[in-house]
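Problem: given the chain below (148 residues), write out its structure.
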Amino acid sequence: ASLILSQANSVGYTPKWFGVDGMDGILTMEGFDPSLAEGVMLLTPFNADAEDEQTQAFVAKYQEQFGETPNQFAADAYDGVYIIKAALEQAGCTADMSNEEICDALVSAMTSLKFTGLTGTDMTWNAEGQVSKAPTAYVVKDGQYVKG
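Solution.
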């Protein structure tokens, strides 16, 4: 996306841009001029500038440990660990279970799990493992993600 926005700018091409979560982090990408993303609309489940307590605590700890602001992919990984933890607890998994038993128990638990984390509220999963959660839209304004 950074290359596309840069190349489009170099030839004066100025459409309305729409992207998805893969564009998250573009504003802090080394060597990228964030002004080129002004007006870009995108869907992403996480905004490091959100003011809720959970997000702010995560961002502060992440910055302390890694020296940079987390993007959606860091938040997804964080939630992923806690989703697996919740599923293991719901399934009653124990350390003495075989990997096959744990796998079967997790498959069953995931389809009845409802999880709220950094990247969504009331997330659920179907039998194929696909997540269902509400999309969150943002627009880049003045170098910030603003709910759109």
